[in-house]
Amino acid sequence: MEDLTVVGYKNNAWELIPSALENNTSNSLLSGAIVSETPIALNEYNALALAVKGIAGSDGTPAGLPLVAEGVSPNGDGDNDTWFIQGIERFPNAKIKVYNRTGEVVFRANNGYNNDWIGDFKESGNILPSAPYFYTIDLDDDGELDLQGWLYVQQ
């Protein structure tokens, strides 16, 4: 827990939000609290996430790992129109899959990813229904998943 901090995503970049462990709670690997040292204006950020303190890649991403956006809304407003994974360009052999709730692969990138997926079914141009989708990322094509989680497609 001591190595975690809060980061916020705005203006196409992640930024560190000064934070610390809450002193009056029991902090362990299973539970605890991280609080911001200053008020956070939530409307200024597209996303908030936990990150590892003091370990960053050359582009500022925590632990040198890509930071995965939690959603895509391909509505043409210029915000989150494609699924953005900050730092993915450092992993040209990355294999990425996105699954629907029944386990069907709805998106696949086999040799890197260019931050260009618009949330469409198998890159057909037909936008997926608004819903959560599960993703897996194998950064170095070694057969082991390096990142996995959920993203939301909003029509």
The proportion of residues in beta strands is 35-45%
- As a percent range, the share of helical residues equals under 10%
Radius of gyration: 17 Å
The CATH class label of the largest domain is Mainly Beta
Helices, by number, come to 0
Largest sheet: 5 strands, mixed
Mean pLDDT: 81
According to DSSP, the number of beta strands is 12
| CATH architectural name of the largest domain | Sandwich
Query: What is CATH's topology name of the largest domain?
Result: Immunoglobulin-like
User: What is the overall silhouette?
Assistant: globular
Coarse structural class: mainly beta
Describe the protein's architecture and organization.
- With about 160 residues, the chain is mostly beta strands.
- It has 2 domains: about 5-50, no CATH class; about 65-155, Immunoglobulin-like (Sandwich).
- The chain has strands at about 5-10, 15, 20, 35, 45-50, 65-70, 70, 85, 95-100, 105-110, 130-140, 145-155.
- A 5-stranded mixed β-sheet has the order 7-12-11-9-10, with no helix packed on it. A 3-stranded antiparallel β-sheet has the order 2-1-5, with no helix packed on it.
